[in-house]
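Exam prep: given the inputs below (a chain plus LXEULUCI), describe the expected output before reading on.
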Amino acid sequence: MRYGKLEVICGPMFSGKSTEILKRAIWYTHGTGSHILLLKPAFDVRYAENRVVNHDGIGFDAIPITRMPAVADSIAAVFIDEVQFCTDPHYHGDLVEDVRVLLHRGIDVAVAGLDMDWRGRAFPVTATLAAMADGLQKLRARCAVCGHDAHKSFKKHSNDRTVELGQADLYEPRCNLHWHDHSPKPGRELSLDL
Ligand SMILES: Nc1ncnc2c1ncn2[C@@H]1O[C@H](COP(=O)(O)OP(=O)(O)O)[C@@H](O)[C@H]1O
Ligand SMILES: Cc1cn([C@H]2C[C@H](O)[C@@H](COP(=O)(O)O)O2)c(=O)[nH]c1=O
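Solution:
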């Protein structure tokens, strides 16, 4: 049996990840009669509980999950948005292993998720799936300050929370020049300025 294909879409907030996975899910079924599942973490209730919705308000029905649901043999592909949240405590089990099982069954998988948190640290689930991927699309947004390519998500009100649902009220995309991670600067003891 054919091994499934894994596609990963990643990037900062507002880079078009949800738009891209919705497009891919719709195109996968067009004219093929293939059956798919569109999944999202139940934890993400930002725009809707039962839909993947992008920042322009365009959405599609999806199944909210806290674990991998039963996937029938008739399903050709599984699409998962906001995959960075598919980890403890919002996901029961090991999403990476669950994806591997689907691929072994010949089921294609496509996921979309943040590559980095607002501090610039990798989200482990996205990073691992990116390493396993047959195809990787890293998207960019427009910097909210200067309009250049933005690869980072800037948090407008810094706190100690790595995971915090929000949209333009709390986050904005920024280029490397205008992004900073709020972490303390190295102290004088680290300075080589003798
Ligand atoms: N600074 C920005 N840069 C790019 N797109 C933005 C920005 N602010 C708002 N948007 C909107 O966000 C949409 C992308 O939304 P979405 O697909 O939900 O992205 P993501 O899932 O990556 O957050 C764009 O089509 C655009 O209309
Ligand atoms: C950067 C960052 C984001 N989040 C949250 C904020 C949103 O609810 C989602 C990302 O949504 P999008 O479709 O990519 O716009 O994740 C977070 O919890 N922690 C972060 O560091």
